Automatic annotation (TrEMBL), chain C:
Transmembrane spans: 39-67, 96-114, 126-146, 192-214
PROSITE patterns reported in the protein's UniProt record: CYTB_NTER (PS51002)
Domain Cytochrome b/b6 N-terminal region profile stretches: 5-223
InterPro entries noted in UniProt: Cyt_b/b6_N (IPR005797), Cytb/b6-like_sf (IPR027387), Cytochrome_b_N_euk/bac (IPR048259), Di-haem_cyt_TM (IPR016174)
Subcellular location: Cell membrane
The protein's name: Menaquinol:cytochrome c reductase cytochrome b subunit
Amino acid sequence: MSHQHEEHESSHKPPVRKEMSRRQFLTYTLGGATAFMVAGVTLPMVRFAVDPILRDKGEGAFVKVAEVSKITNEPQEFHFELKQQDGWYLSTANLVAWIRKDESGNIYALSPICKHLGCTVGWNSNSNFPDQYHCPCHGAHYTKEGKQLAVASKPLDEYKVMIKDDWVYLGEIVPNTIVS
Amino acid sequence: MAHNDKSKQEKVVFVGDSRVRRGNGFVTPPDYTAYPGKSEAFIPNFLLKEWMVGVVVLVGFLVLTISEPAPLGFPADPSASVIPMPDWYFLFLYQYLKYPYASGNYVILGTIGIPTVAFGALLLAPFLDTSKERRFYKRPIASALMFLSLASLVYLTNFAWTHYKHELEKAGVEPEHIQREEQALENRLAGLPPAGSEPQAEIAIVDKDDPAMEFYTKATCISCHGADLKGSGGPSLRGIGDKHDKEAILAIIKEGYNGKMPEMYTAAMNAGLTDEDVDHLAEWLAKQKAEAVE
Amino acid sequence: MFKNVYDWIDERLDITPIWRDVADHEVPEHVNPAHHFSAFVYCFGGLTFFITVIQILSGMFLTMYYVPDIINAYKSVEYLQTQVAFGQIVRGMHHWGASLVIVMMFLHTLRVFFTGSYKAPREMNWVVGMLIFFVMIGLGLTGYLLPWDNKAYFATKVTLEIANSIPVLGPVMKELLQGGTIVGAETLTRFFAIHVFFLPAVLLILLVGHFIMIRRQGISGPL
């Protein structure tokens, strides 16, 4: 179509006032109608497709995990279940947290997912690295605050912690805030 | 295509060593000077008119989709009693196959014979109707056959549809997609989540050891609602207390429900239950609440 | 800028004649609703195509949520219809579009029939058109089962019984369509595959043939 526009415009060069030719008008109307039809058909579908990113994520629910009195300075392993609504599928994720109390009494919980390649780390699981988290896959190890000492590039993630009625509640997983 | 002779004289130049012809950028389209009246270019003149129609249809279509949700019934259950119903454009076929000469001993004629002839004739129409004449009133046989087929299509479809409506009315049920929507609306008004987001966790039986469990078996409730209250022919009764209270359940036992469940009170009496037993049963059923378990 | 890109491509592929032919071909007056209102009957073919495009698009988007599996099919349909934003509209488009495409195609067929447009030299195009009709019916039939609700389930059972009543081949056909001895998990995956891959592929090939033939032969003359 562009060819014809040029032909047209060049043949009409002398007049200064630019009026819309019949052909241009038709082309614009056609373009408008096309745009309307394309938008009318695809907009609902695009909104439908991108729904997951526009969905209200909500505050991650907190799960009751352990009694405060049981938390010691030594990290302890706690298992808990998290209900996940995954579309139409409700599942239960089995999660693990290593919870300890630091010297000033703050409680924090680390996720045992190694930041190197996602294996599961264990506390004191290797006699070469006493009082450290050690990952059996590639030998990454971490301090009890979760600070990485080898292989991994980031400290262990931690859970959001909430204390209520002498119980420790854990929420969603966030990047480590203790060591950084 | 009338310009073939002209293009033959031109020297064909290819782009590079490819087989793509170096065109001169314009191909004269075939004209319709043989036809009377004005003709116009496809783009933008004609397409614009076509798309005006398209826009109108699209708007109507969007209004339809927004105002009328696509029907969805209850999940498929092979033991459910549902009046089977094909999509509307199969109704004529569905109805036609019920006729004596299309079923029973003549089923071959019905499923192969007539459809093959009808659809075969339609498929091969140009080879059967070979006259030069195009106006429909100048080719009476073809047109008459088509009109006849159209009339029978309309008749059969309408017959099947009214029959289906009639059946529904007789059974006193509404189509499932309407039932489901009503249920969803009820849930919404009651502040419950819509069925879809509800965790499909199993609701346990409350007070399993209650003597009512025995009455439940005796009064033959068990045959439709299942030994474990999960339902077989009838619906599940687990968590029924969320839906009906004791009075309502008693009323259902005595009067039936929705035309689907018959009155069961007499059956219970015949089974040797007393009024107190039935009362106790209703009370126990009313206790079947989803949350009560945890 | 745009022109340079276009010229570059055009030099290599010589695409100008193709779209010039589509864009500039003359459309005669007797099919133009602006000249004769009655010519609107010539729009049904185009509208069928328009709705078909909507069907293909909405179908593509629906498969983002749909699962062809007897446990999850119904749940996923209910989820996408009630929980996902615009899900009701997108599923509505696909559902009502399926009916509309049949209506439009039916009207288009009647127009072609009563204007005698299928006569020489356009016999082949009529045959291709009828094949498109059958493919569309097949799409409707296979798509009906996919939500896996009671209506779908029992209607499909009836359809398969009809197939079963065909002598000799019937039982084999039934079992082939059913993918087993009952209407169940394997039936659903089969119908899904047919509905989403096989028939649309056939449909697209037939449509291309239909359109090429229309361009080659031009629209039928006035009566």
